[in-house]
Amino acid sequence: MGRHTRKLISGVILMALAGAGAAWWLTKPRAWDAAHWEGLGEPDLANGEQVFWAGGCASCHAAPGAPDDQRLVLAGGRALKSPFGTFHAPNISPDETAGIGDWTLAEFGNAITRGVGKDGEHLYPSFPYGSYARLTAKDVNDLWGYLQTLPKSANVAPPHDLSFPYNIRLALGGWKLLFLTDEPRVAVNNADAKLARGQYLVEGLGHCGECHTPRNTLGGFEPGMWLAGAPNPEGQGRIPDITPASKSIGSWSASDIASYLETGFTPDFDTVGGLMVEVQKNMARLPPSDREAIAAYLKALPAR
């Protein structure tokens, strides 16, 4: 092998290593600086409970069909089917072994808003951190405090059942680079305090877009299709369009929407069904002002 050939091969290897290093740096898990979670004081447990219900924590992490107070046992295990495989919701009870009882606020906050696990690994976006990225540090702290008051469970959730290449967590760094942002999903004109609250609840805590917005082949939201309806992740039917011009709720008033979230009844006296049953149960626990804010935001969305 000649000198020039060796130099060429060495150059190619160096370029490949440099490219791999750059790719790793761009896609590595990125937690908040420690200061982000400091100085928050004692959690406001009443607000933490409201964050819990608005965020739908029980819907995924309690046992399917759990009644009443059993919804507060966050044992995990629920299967979440998707085109990429089946995800299993983890135990997030305060159990120190099976749950997250030995986590810190920073570890919990980085998981919920940055998709970074306790050991610094990427988490799958079946956990809607793409929406929770908009949560304030105060709300995360209050939620964390409230979770510590709930019953412990020793249940160990099964691992995710994913085929290649979706079982490679390193690839999630590229997904985050493309799709993870805490910027508003849409621009709402003349936003007052009520609209701002509604946007925070719908785009963030309520993570409504996770079901109501169609996705591309990589699992990111389709541009310009916010809340425009999407295939049912469980495989049957569709999640409806909930924009102002939709056939589902386009003719509803803001008070109709707020009433539906509280009672589960449509203006035509039909009842909530499907995946929305759990969501409506959660929304019914919020103060009326929050349901009114959600309704105001949905009515203020730009027409498609």
Physical arrangement of strands within the biggest beta sheet = 1-2-3
What share of residues are in beta strands? under 5%
Proper CATH architecture of the largest domain: Orthogonal Bundle
Morphology:
globular
* Through-space gap between termini: 63 Å
Q: CATH first level of the largest domain: which class?
A: Mainly Alpha
CATH topology of the largest domain: Cytochrome Bc1 Complex, Chain D, domain 2
Instruction: Tell me the total number of β-strands.
Output: 5
Q: Report the biggest beta sheet as strand number plus sense, adding barrel if it closes.
A: 3 strands, antiparallel
Poorly predicted spans: 6-25
Q: Helix/strand/pairing class, anyone? A: mainly alpha
Count of individual helical segments: 12
* Helical content band: 25-40%
Structure, described:
With 304 residues, this protein is mostly helical. The protein contains twelve helices and five strands. A hairpin with a 2-residue loop joins strand 1 and strand 2. About 7% of the residues have low confidence. Keywords: Heme, Iron, Kinase, Metal-binding, Transferase.
Question: What are its keywords?
Answer:
40% helix; 304 residues; Cytochrome Bc1 Complex, Chain D, domain 2; single chain; heme binding; mainly alpha
Topology summary:
Blueprint: H1 3-27, H2 45-54, H3 57-61, E1 79-82, E2 85-88, H4 105-114, H5 129-132, H6 137-147, E3 161-162, H7 172-179, H8 193-205, H9 209-212, E4 230-231, E5 238-239, H10 254-263, H11 276-283, H12 288-300
Antiparallel strand pairs: 1-2, 2-3, 4-5
Helix pairs in contact: 2-6, 4-6, 8-12, 10-11, 10-12
